[in-house]
Design goal:
This protein is mainly beta. The protein contains three helices and 21 strands.
Length: 259
């Protein structure tokens, strides 16, 4: 951003590096907290758990959600000076946001910061007011993604009133939310297979879901384009026709499969 690369170390420091030379432009430290000594081992571990997050740049500031401190932190992008942030509070409620329960710093969309966790919050950065997305628990699933102005999250539970027992990733779904300030849930879609609840990546016309495997979701027309040249081969290749038909059938596209 502006010729600089921002790095979050998760060991009490954040830095700015020259994108050309790799030289350190500035290095800022912050107090590390939330660590404790394991009994009889002397090993230090954290009192909370959080995945690694990249820094987020917005209007001259760098926001980080480190692994060695539960707080959301901010620094000036130009010199690394720490910026004091007001407490995060939920809109029209007195309760504060439990920041240690936030796990994924997704990024800024329309001047709103999206942070996933046991509840996913969208923070209006101009006044630091937080709004909670409906049915948005991602703390044991994965990182969401932005696409064409919408937020997509691999939520742990669909939030249905018919859900039985505690929510888990096996009962989860892909949830879409309109861009801020609307924030309305635009739909929830079940995964095709079990345990498909990992990090999301949108690549062209495809949605890639990464857990201990990679699953790719896309539209029928995209699959048609991928197969077009091979389907048009003369003489026809039976293996290609069967492969295309199986792909359509597995996704409930029986008419296309019958072609």
């Amino acid at each position: 951003q502006g010729g600089a690369v921002y790095a979050q170390t998760n060991i009490g420091a954040v830095a700015s590096l020259s994108a050309v030379t790799g030289d350190v432009l500035w290095l800022s430290r912050y107090p590390r907290v939330g660590m404790r000594q394991q009994q009889n081992t002397g090993v230090m571990d954290y009192t909370f758990s959080r995945a690694a997050n990249w820094p987020v740049f917005w209007k001259g500031r760098i926001y980080i959600l480190p692994q060695d401190r539960p707080d959301l932190l901010a620094f000036e992008a130009s010199g690394g000076r720490a910026v004091s942030l007001p407490p995060l509070r939920v809109f029209k409620e007195e309760r504060p946001v439990e920041v240690r329960e936030l796990h994924q710093l997704l990024g800024v969309l329309n001047d709103w910061l999206v942070i996933g966790g046991q509840l996913t919050h969208v923070v209006r950065l101009k006044d630091f007011t937080a709004f909670t997305l409906a049915a948005s628990d991602t703390h044991v699933s994965g990182r969401g993604a932005f696409h064409e102005g919408q937020v997509y999250l691999p939520v742990c539970s669909t939030g249905s009133l018919d859900d039985k027992g505690p929510p888990g990733p096996q009962t989860g779904a892909l949830a879409g939310y309109a861009a801020p300030p609307s924030l309305l849930c635009t739909g929830q879609f079940s995964w095709k297979g079990p345990a498909e609840y990992g990090n999301l990546l949108i690549a062209g016309d495809s949605l890639v879901v990464a857990t201990d495997k990679l699953s790719v979701y896309t539209g029928v027309e995209t699959i048609r384009r991928e197969y077009a040249q091979r389907l048009a081969a003369s003489p026809p290749r039976a293996d290609v026709l069967l492969e295309f038909g199986d792909s359509m059938r597995e996704n409930g596209r029986l008419e296309e499969a019958a072609e």
